[in-house]
């Protein structure tokens, strides 16, 4: 984990303006990673965290965000829906309310094609 993102950017000769970057978080079966991506891809991607022992959990992602001082920089986060759900604190697996925007009931299969409006969270 990189504890000094600004220092890393300085070493790489890159002017770090947080508004120009977004934080990509992803995991696979074998790793958890966080990478800074430049908006417009004019600058190289900067890996800021990587682990082969951490699983994709809220606690691990929160630890990474704290270590890279996310609260200071407030980059936009881009990730797959699973990561977004974890960061929003939703339960994993086959959940009843799996949408982080509304109360869409994934188990109400009789309503899936009839009900088009679901209450907001």
Automatic annotation (TrEMBL):
Name of the protein: Uncharacterized protein
Organism expressing this protein natively: Homalodisca liturata
